[in-house]
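Hello, quick one for you while I still have it in my head. I'm working through a protein record and want to make sense of it properly. Would you mind checking whether the tokens look sensible for this chain? I owe you a coffee for this, so here goes:
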Amino acid sequence: QVQLVESGGGLVQAGGSLRLSCAASGRTFSSYAMAWFRQAPGKEREFVAAISWSGSSTNYADSVKGRFTISRDNAKNTVYLQMNSLKPEDTAVYYCAAGLLGTTPSRYTYWGQGTQVTVSS
């Protein structure tokens, strides 16, 4: 079992930055690929970024490539999402997930409760 708790969301102006954190409990954190997804009101959950268990491989949605960076610290059981040059269309609830590396929600077994990110224009 892995429990995930996100933090770092909030309200930011367009062009600003936020860093999301996802703290995981459980001894097997380093065994899992980790990902961030987001869901805006009335829309489906969409892939944002993923990172392999070792951190050697990352993948990004085209919409965030060059602006967002995913990283992990296995010693701290934490995964991060650094978000720069934020846009109003980045507004969503951001979810952390643990599972098998991929871009679809079905690849991930464990989910956090989400953290709200709001970008004002």
About this structure: The longest strand covers residues 18-25. The CA atoms of residues 82 and 95 lie 14 Å apart. The mean pLDDT is 96. The two ends are 40 Å apart (CA to CA).
